[in-house]
Amino acid sequence: MKTDRPFFDTNVLLYLLSEDSAKADRAEAIIASAGIISVQVLNEFASVAFRKLGMSYAEIRDMLGTIRAVCQTQALTVDTHDRGLDIAERFGFSLYDSMIVSSALESGCSILYSENMQHGQEIDGQLVVINPFLDN
């Protein structure tokens, strides 16, 4: 299953809350055009929003509700996990980044928006990592 929709890494969603207006505006623009996230992205967003940004769970739920209204959510499966381990071993990504890549691949995405990985890197002939903030 191939899709034209991009996959969003957690760091892109977190820029919605940034004081850097250029990055916040860029994140909002690309997310508004719809895309795909995983349950892992939801979990990581909630963790950072609570621990580092001091948001309440009600605020987190509201924010994630808005994101979920725009983005399709990819479930995590044992296949996602197994593929993620393979990706970590082959590419040397962190385990959590590898699970994001695995979810993006399983979703049929051709673009992964992330600030954490190498811009322009191609994975398995299907997925290209794009840092949407390079021009900002």
Key attributes of the depicted protein:
14% strand, Rossmann fold, 51% helix, 136 residues, alpha/beta
**Might you state the CATH topology name?**
Rossmann fold
Helix fraction by DSSP (H/I, runs of at least 4) = 40-55%
Ends apart, CA distance between termini: 33 Å
Q: What is the N-to-C succession of helices and strands?
A: EHHEHHEHHEEE
What is the CATH architecture descriptor? 3-Layer(aba) Sandwich
Strand adjacency order, main sheet: 1-4-6-5
Whole-number total of structural domains: 1
What's the CATH H-level homologous superfamily? 5'-nuclease
Category by helix and strand content: alpha/beta
SS summary, helix count: 6
Give the biggest beta sheet: 4 strands, mixed
Low-confidence region ranges:
none
Query: What integer value in Å does the Rg equal?
Result: 14 Å
Q: Quickly name the level 1 CATH class.
A: Alpha Beta
Q: How much of the polypeptide forms β-strand, as a percent range?
A: 5-15%
Question: Average pLDDT across residues?
Answer: 95
Q: What is the overall silhouette?
A: globular
Structure description:
Helix 3 runs antiparallel to helix 4 (57-70) and helix 5 (78-91) packs across helix 6 (95-106). A hairpin with a 3-residue loop joins strand 5 and strand 6 (127-130). This protein has helices spanning 10-14, 21-32, 39-51, 57-70, 78-91, 95-106; strands at 7-8, 35-38, 71-74, 111-113, 122-123, 127-130. It is built from six helices and six strands; from the N terminus they run E-H-H-E-H-H-E-H-H-E-E-E. With 136 residues, it is α/β, with parallel strands linked by helices. 35% of the residues are buried.
